[in-house]
Amino acid sequence: MRDRLASLAKALADKTVHGDITWERAGEADFCCIVGDRSVVIQSIDGDGSPPLKMSIRDEHSIEIVSLDWNVTRTTAGTLTEDPRNDDLVQLYEAARYSASEVDKVLTELFDELGIPE
Predict the structure, then answer these.
(1) 115 phi and psi angles, rounded to 5 deg
(2) Distance CA 12, CA 55 (A)
(3) Are 96 and 42 in contact (CB under 8 A)?
(4) Residue 78: left (phi > 0), alpha (psi -120 to 50), or beta?
(5) pTM of the model
(6) Other CB atoms closer than 10 Å to residue 14's CB: what's the count?
(7) For position 97, what pLDDT does the model report?
(8) CA dihedral defined by 109, 113, 117, 118, rounded to 10 degrees?
(9) CB pairs under 8 A, 24+ apart, for 60-63?
(10) The pLDDT value given to residue 78
């Protein structure tokens, strides 16, 4: 299940980067996109805009169906190891934040207003 969710996170990030999916703010550090009658939310769990992160799939009533949570495990030596799938959450979060913030539009407007050629 975690592998399927990680694959979904990676695909959503790719589609977002290519402009096929757009995201909206769903809170101070949360972003949401609609896919059919479902929604996908990527959020910073502690609200600071950085890991730990969580991607949740919600039904048409915004009830969470399944989620991919940030995962850290303790090794037998006692050190902490991050799940490599956490990288998929980071990529999705950054792509969603970029999309929801309309960074390209803002930069174009700044260049235009300042008369700076691109």
Answers:
(1) 65, 30
(2) 11
(3) yes
(4) left
(5) 0.87
(6) 14
(7) 96
(8) -20
(9) none
(10) 73
